[in-house]
Every structure is written in C-alpha cells, then in structure tokens.
Please model this.
Amino acid sequence: MSEEERPEVPPPPRPGPSDPLTFGEAVLLIDPKGREYLRDLRPGRRFSLHCGYIDADAMVGRPNGLRMTSSLGQPVLVFRPTYARLIPNLPRQAQVIYPKDAASILVWGDIYPGARVIESGVGPGALTMALLRAIGPEGHLTSIERREDHVKMARENVARFHGPALNWLPVLAEAADALPTMSADRVILDLPEPGPLLGAAAQALRPGGVLVCYVPTTIQVDQIGQALRDEPRFALPETFETLQRFWHVAPNSVRPDHRMVAHTGFIVTAWRLADVD
Model:
C-alpha cells in the first residue's frame, strides 16, 4: 500500500493556547545560555540538559511560559514552541525552509485564508505547516513529494506540531505527472530544478494565480529565469533573497550579533496570465 493510501490516524487534540501543559505535547526547554531543547512530555521522562536535569511530570498541569529550576539549581524556561522556534529544532532528514524564507513565501506568494495551494517538495513539512496556518480550515493544501520517507516524515511532524489537518493531501508522485491534473490558486516549487516544471505549473494555476520557486544557488536562478522567459503564460518575474540579522542588546552594549542568518535560498515569483485567443 502506498503512503497516500494508508488510512489517517488522527492525532490527539491539541491543547488550547491558555491550557496548562499536558502529556503528549512538545515543549521547548531553554537553558541559561540560550540553548534550546525540543522535547516530548511523557510520564516519568527525565530530560538531561547541559545545566542539569528536569522532570516532565513536574511540568504537566502548569502554565505555558514556565520558569523551572534544574537539578543543578539553574533556571530553565519551558514554552510551547512558536513556529519560528520550532523550525530550527524540527526533526528532519532534509533541509528545512527557514522561518525568514517561509514568511517571505507567504507574503510574496499571497497565501490567504481559503486559498487552494499546491506545494511540490515537502521535506520535513516546515513550509507545509506555515501554509496550513495561512490558508486556514477553509483552504486546501496538496503536497507533492517523490520520496516516501519524506512524506512519512512530513506526516509525523504535521500531526505532532500542527495537529489535525483534514484539508491537507500529501501525494506521493512526480510533480511533472501530478501537477497537470490539479487546480490551484498558488503553486510553490521547492525543488532543485523547477524550470522544467513551469509548463505543468501553468496548467495547474488559475489565471492571476501566483507561482513561487525556492532555489538555493545562482545557477538555478539563472535557469528558472530563462525558463520563465520561455514560458508565455507567466509574467512579472521577481527574484530576491531574505537576510536576517539579530542584534545583541544588553546594558551599555547594543550591536549586531556576530553571526547572522544570511543566504539560505532565492525566492522567485511570477504571475499566471489568462489564456486568450
């Protein structure tokens, strides 16, 4: 039985944002040096950190945003992970799309509540979760992935960190075969070489729809640029990257951090023209 044919196993209900911490959910532990640990709350589980250990049982029933003390007397913060904190810690076997790029894709791709979206290249499901949050329960997301292990990994991460997603359809297939059979308001291609798929993406997109391609290198930017020039059904191509620089803010010391999240990938967008005689 293929991955997309296997019956869905509904994940446990997610606690509300104001509910106390409970067994079965993931929490983000942050030690005094800012090190982050993504852990599942399980009965009897003890978490060993650089600053000592803390027990899962001591967190359950207490509020989100908890300040605890480790076995070595060090403070440990306990939060339900936000999207931006979750993605760098996401269990994965493939590279994720970082939050800064996911944010740009949502805005420049004009992902709106109720949209019908197709993504090709699902990886660990990082962008998938951002898309599901953006389209809301009235929208629909189809995720095309050629690797069964990536589909399985994305299913697990979505179930664990997003919750029930009845409006999400993972499809194990080649994008070139699947895209022409589908219809969408937005198409997102997170693939090494999206250029050869532009014709199939144009078939799937409605007039006025937006195409977004995410590619890592200038060689691929050049290739997708040429492919867009050769495809008359797309117009207004734009290419950019997003750089993110955090700042160190302390008493009498305000300066840029020594490290920054610089180049991770290029985002290329284009609009689908209407078919006219």
